[in-house]
Amino acid sequence: MHYPEKYIVDLNEKEIIGLHLDSSYSINELKDSYVRCTLSFLLEAIQHCRHNNHTKNLVPIMSSLSMLEQIGICYERTDLNTNFTNGIKRALILFGEYESDDDLLDILPALRNGLLHNVSLVSKAKYPNQSNYIFRYSNENDNLSGVYQNSPRIWDGNFGTLSAKGREHYTTLINTDELNDLLYKCLNNAEELNNKGLLKIKLDGGKEELFYNYLRSKPK
To answer: Is 131 helix (H, G, I), strand (E, B) or coil?
Structure first.
């Protein structure tokens, strides 16, 4: 995706969105610089980490959640609306084809908050309408085919409950591979929507904010 005759200010909305959603590892050319989106750096990191037993879960999950949040806050669709402001929830509805009442819209933001704020697989509710979660990465023995599996019991947020009654009864499972597939589905859908002219930049700073926040450039 090259625009060798255009500066950043010459790109139209569809063109700069295309640069941002470019999931390849290639470098794109503008008239005065070479650019690559931050999404592609994270996708490349995921592929490297998935083959390392020490990083195959944590890094891919954190990266996937960050990317979902990014595309959720950056874009809106002209043919589908959502009142959610949370980036992950927006991405799941706009690009993942989830309904607004699906449990995943609560689970993934909670997982993201625990990991990114405290590098923890525990997420405690801050408001009455939120749930408490303790997570675990699924393994082959779990036979989990979806992104998540709800815990058999609802956790009250008391750590003593886990010790007294058994953590396994309150644990929500996360399938890292399925989450990665969901990420690619959302990215591909976003790219297709942009190609059809159904995607608009939601950021207050418009094209310039998208470029300077989420694309890395190097002068020629």
So the answer is: coil
- C-alpha torsion 171→175→180→186, nearest 10: -70
Q: Is 197 a member of any domain?
A: yes
Which residues neighbour 118 within 8 Å (Cβ) at sequence distance 6 or greater?
Answer: none
pLDDT tens digit string along 102-119? 999 999 999 999 998 889
Instruction: Please tell me the total count of domains within the chain.
Output: 1
To the nearest 10 degrees (0 to 180), the angle between helices 176-195 and 87-94 is 70
- Tokens of residue 118, six digits: 């405290």
Tokens of 214: 């989420």
The strand pair at 28-29 and 199-201 is best described as unpaired
pLDDT tens for 161-184 read: 999 999 999 999 999 999 999 999
